[in-house]
Write a structure and sequence with these properties.
Layout lengths: L15 H6 L4 H9 L9 E8 L3 E7 L12 E5 L4 E5 L5 H5 L1 H11 L10 E5 L5 H4 L16 H16 L2 H13 L6 H4 L21 H8 L3 H5 L3 H10 L4
Parallel strand pairs: 4-5
Antiparallel strand pairs: 1-2, 1-3, 3-4
Helix pairs in contact: 6-7
């Protein structure tokens, strides 16, 4: 059997017999070629928390990178085709336990009327798959190596305090425990107006809701060192930081 002959046709230079074989669908094909291809939406990153009375709180992080992720936080990465819930190694236990609920609440609150069946993936720090890390430029597996929690820093300070001033270390431990009892929020959130604060934040003690990294960066001192200052000095520092 002889091999069939093939003719190469370029778009726009089709012969009449070509269109005749297709049922003359020129108009349909032209309309399809003019239809704009929908572009994928960019991913979005949100800080999220579960406040008192099971109230969910979401704060978008603009122009994000891996540096915005902290071991003390819980975050949502919205890839639109899927929603990832990332839990840091030291994030609040309540947020970790209710990770799925956080994602469902996020989808329900999205004004874009999201599909409630959107896939949800819960990830732990250090176990991120490539389809998650790919949304972060220059992802580093060693980013949090050597990271110290606020409690660890205080413990180190306590050891020094025991040598230097004996019983004063006990007081240091008590203040550290008090600081760790509070839910943590980004500095930008705590600087916002009173009516926009999360419901569990006391406007008079906003500093208690900072992460230990933000606290040291904001005040240039640990929580223990800050508490040791005179009340008027604390007040002035809080005013300067926009937390009063």
């Amino acid at each position: 059997m002889a091999a069939a002959e093939h003719t190469l046709l370029m778009e726009g230079k089709e012969k009449p017999e070509f269109w005749s074989a297709l049922g003359d669908r020129r108009g349909v094909l032209r309309a399809a070629s003019l239809h704009e291809v929908e572009r994928p939406l960019p991913p979005r990153l949100f800080y999220c928390s579960l406040a008192a009375h099971s109230q969910y709180y979401f704060e978008e992080i603009i122009s994000f990178s891996q540096y915005e992720l902290s071991p003390e936080m819980c975050a949502i990465l919205d890839a639109h085709c899927a929603v990832y819930v990332w839990t840091g190694m030291h994030c609040p236990a309540r947020a970790r336990e209710h990770a799925l609920s956080l994602a469902h609440a996020y989808l329900a609150q999205d004004p874009a009327a999201r599909d409630p069946e959107t896939p949800i993936l819960v990830l732990s720090q250090g176990r991120e798959p490539p389809n998650f890390t790919g949304f972060f430029p220059h992802w580093k597996q060693t980013m949090w190596k050597g990271h110290k929690t606020f409690s660890a820093i205080i413990s180190a300070l306590e050891g020094k305090a025991i040598v230097q001033c004996g019983n004063s270390a006990l007081q240091s431990g008590n203040t550290a425990n008090r600081f760790d009892q509070y839910e943590k929020y980004p500095l930008a959130v705590l600087r916002g107006p009173k009516e926009h604060l999360p419901p569990d934040v006391d406007p008079l003690t906003k500093e208690l809701y900072l992460t230990h990294d933000d606290f040291v960066a904001t005040f240039g001192a640990s929580y223990d060192e800050f508490r040791a200052l005179p009340a008027w000095k604390q007040k002035d520092m809080k005013k300067a930081a926009g937390l009063f």
